[in-house]
Amino acid sequence: MTKYEAIFRRKSIRRYREAEVDEKILEEIRGFGKDALGDRPDIAVRWKIYRASDRSVRGLFQVKAPYYAALYSEICEDCYIHAGCLMQQLVLHLHTLGIGSCYQGGARLKDSREEGMELMMILAFGWPAEPLERRRADFKRAELKKLVKVNGPLGRAQRKLLEPARLAPSALNQQPWRFVVTENRIHLFVRRPGIVGYDRQLNKNMFNAGIVLSHMLIAAEEHWIDLEYQKLDSIMEKAIQNHLYAGSLVFTGTVGKA
């Protein structure tokens, strides 16, 4: 199974067996990202793995799992988008190995200090004690017409990217993103947070945008679609209702028409 195929099968796992994950896989996680797709590969990140026996992870709605992967990043522009993009690729990679996972948005670490870096997200993972996959019909997601505004015809290439984007997971399945599609671009927007906890919620929404971005980049690679992720000055100050601009996928090759 490929990461692209995993997009259409993977689900969050909340029950795990107490079986050991091979140390080679744990080492692969600690170094994950060297060959991953991403918007900002220049951003420094660091992975740490904690075992349940360490009792280092705690917090609201914590899933009890034998392992937890914590992703740290330097703080800079797009760091949360990059972190979401990177962690979702790890999630899909683990799925191809038969390993389940679940985002821990409400969890925290007993000691989250990491010099020059900030904790982005914690991921529970391990061998599943429940079905690892679901059918495509079991995904509870909004229809594309509720997520996408199209200026012009929707081509084949755009459709191949937007359906995997629609299936992306998000906190509480809120899908806090919207897309504006033009002939050779897909613009990504995220929901504007409320006044209370604005920065914290914006960071979460940008992390979710990174998850969506990972699905689109993986789909582009699968279908041999040439594109680049960019922040366009012409769009920076634009907004759709209650949403903020997060970036654009710009097609650099021939875009198929519907």
Please, could you describe this protein's structure?
This protein is α+β, with helices and mostly antiparallel strands and 258 residues long. It has two domains: 124 residues, NADH Oxidase; 112 residues, NADH Oxidase (3-Layer(aba) Sandwich). 29% of the residues lie in helices and 24% in strands. It is built from seven helices and eleven strands. The strands form three sheets. Strands 7-8-9-11-10 form a five-stranded mixed sheet. Strands 1-3-6-4 form a four-stranded antiparallel sheet, with helices on one face. α3 packs across α6. The longest helix is centred in the C-terminal third of the chain and has 25 residues. The chain is globular and about 55 Å long. The relative contact order is 0.17. The mean pLDDT is 90.
Key features of this structure:
2 domains, 29% helix, alpha+beta, globular, NADH Oxidase, four-stranded antiparallel β-sheet, 258 residues
Strand order of the largest sheet: 7-8-9-11-10
How far the N terminus sits from the C terminus, by CA atoms, comes to: 28 Å
Stated plainly, the CATH topology of the largest domain is called: NADH Oxidase
What number of structural domains do the residues give? 2
How many strand segments? 11
Largest sheet: 5 strands, mixed
Task: Briefly say what this structure is.
With 258 residues, this protein is an alpha+beta fold.
SSE blueprint:
Blueprint: H1 3-7, H2 23-30, E1 45-51, E2 57-59, E3 67-73, H3 79-96, E4 100-103, E5 107-109, E6 118-126, H4 144-147, E7 148-150, H5 156-166, E8 177-181, E9 185-191, H6 198-222, E10 227-230, H7 233-236, E11 243-251
Parallel strand pairs: 7-8
Antiparallel strand pairs: 1-3, 2-5, 3-6, 4-6, 8-9, 9-11, 10-11
Helix pairs in contact: 3-6, 5-6
